[in-house]
Amino acid sequence: MSLRIFHMIFVAASVLLSMGVGLWAVRFYMIEGGLGWLAFGIVFFILGVTLILYGVRVRAKLFDDQ
User: Fold this and answer.
1) Which residues are CB-neighbours of 7 under 8 A, at least 6 positions away?
2) If you placed Cys at 41, which of 26, 48, 61, 65 could pair as Cys (CB 3.0 to 4.6 Å)?
3) Whether the Cβ atoms of residue 48 and residue 19 lie closer than 8 Å to each other
4) 41 near 22, Cβ under 8 Å?
5) Contact 11/54 with Cβ under 8 angstroms?
């Protein structure tokens, strides 16, 4: 497995993990009601979207030059 493919798999796993943590925090906010949980969830959703944008740019840079 090349380093390029490993990097893209790692970015995809990071996106899934951040979105999962975001969902978990929002669900916990719905149960507990603390605004800290909602903020935590929003931060991780923003992180997930940022990682998606990063993955798109890295994919274009790494794979389109071939």
Assistant:
1) 58, 62
2) 26
3) yes
4) yes
5) yes
* 5-39 pLDDT, tens digit each: 999 999 999 999 999 999 999 999 999 989 999 99
pLDDT for residue 66 = 59
Residue 51 CB-half CA count within 13 A:
19
Neighbour-count burial for 1-10, b at 16+ CB within 10 Å, e otherwise:
eeeeeeebee
User: For residue 59, what are its two tokens?
Assistant: 């994919």
- Give the DSSP per-residue string, the chain: --HHHHHHHHHHHHHHHHHHHHHHHHHHHHHH--HHHHHHHHHHHHHHHHHHHHHHHHHHHHHTT-
